[in-house]
Amino acid sequence: MPVYEYRCRECGTDVERLAHRDRANEPGPCERCGAELARRYGRIGVRLDGWGFSTTDGLVPDRPGRPPYRRVAERAERISETGTS
What we know:
By secondary structure, the chain is α+β, with helices and mostly antiparallel strands. The chain has helices at residues 54-57, 69-82; strands spanning 3-8, 14-18, 37-40. A 3-stranded antiparallel sheet has the order 2-1-3, with no helix packed on it.
């Protein structure tokens, strides 16, 4: 189950709770003052990887010194089928 973050609308207390996604918007009252909790959305780390992102853009055929697109496409297909290069 994921951990959700909430903040009390009255006293500002931050709370983390494990909850099923169906109940993420029903946190219940603040344990400190009994007021309503509001869901907070924290930051997460994301790494964009794969075709179409900066790490693979250098493989596009219109750049001099790069391998021909056909070889790159065949390698990508082989990787997707076998999981290895």
